[in-house]
């Protein structure tokens, strides 16, 4: 979505468990005068930048592209498939699981909230800005048409989109795919909150709590409409309050005062959770399931890095999956929702992540890793290209597989270009800025935390 890649370089080499049990590295011991720290967690072996995560993102991106392009080129096939299998939800859930695995590890590897946010900004916004500008230009020249914003002012729409929270603020997305970045941003805020409160290692309890709340909310929140806060206070005031709160939260959480960091973290976490629970455009249960799924990804990372046990992670997965499936089943079918399609897509997404995890130490096909590297571009660029094709050649009622293949043939080289000339330079600038603002010896690692290096960041980005 943004969340996403979601990661989004490198970390110091960490010995595997077998190597560490036979060799001691005196150079890694803290100096006698240095404050003692808990032993660093064991980091997963990642000779290919955690290539299995890149591969998962690549697969997810292709599936999401097919879901959207099938409206135009495979309409008959789509009409038969969608009641049985929701391709969009499948791809998105894979994205969210990968983001959950990577994002908290990225923050903990840095050990600094300030540089974490700098990394997020320069990872997400350059391509986001380019895509938004492209669709606006396409609209002006008449080759694409942007959606109606229900009479909302330009300032409201712009402010909501700049926060990336527009999906949770009652503002229609300029591009449909941007909705996932809102959940990515809410997840970032929650991750920073837990980190600031020294609760970041309790990923499994957080995932279970969110999943249980999702299951309960199907019944107790059935009378609560979607976008309830927008209905109560209005879009403009809500956007203004949320934007200010988000800026204050990030600035305080990135500060040097411990009290400010905690206050900012809590403010951001509350903001993200409240918006997901009470102002999503999806039912409350699904918004909470999305967050639970991301924290499930984090729980898997904890087990892989040795901070937790695999049994604990497996039990967490069972609870999250059971609550999600139960919530979807209890919600029932609707005009744009079939529970069997949602449940099947969700289960296959979890299974796909599990298969990727199982083969993580095997050789990953380079084409899939390459697709994962450019998956953020694939995710954001394809709706712009679709808008152009809609405005030029139009949509077809019958299946046109050759046009579908031609769409991919144009999209992928274009995404290689956007990655090379927009994404990669943006990341490079972000790393330079982070090095400049980070003061040696002034870490934001919470006292008592492991503070060890996380996995090397994947080349992928938020969905």
TrEMBL record:
What domain of life does the UniProt record list for this protein's source?
A: Bacteria
- Does the record's keyword annotation contain Signal? no
Q: Give the UniProt record's GO annotations in the biological process aspect.
A: polysaccharide biosynthetic process
Q: Which UniProt keywords apply?
A: Membrane, Transmembrane, Transmembrane helix
UniProt key word RNA-binding: no
- Chain spans, region Disordered: 431-463
Stated name of the protein: Putative membrane protein
Organism the protein comes from = Streptomyces chartreusis NRRL 3882
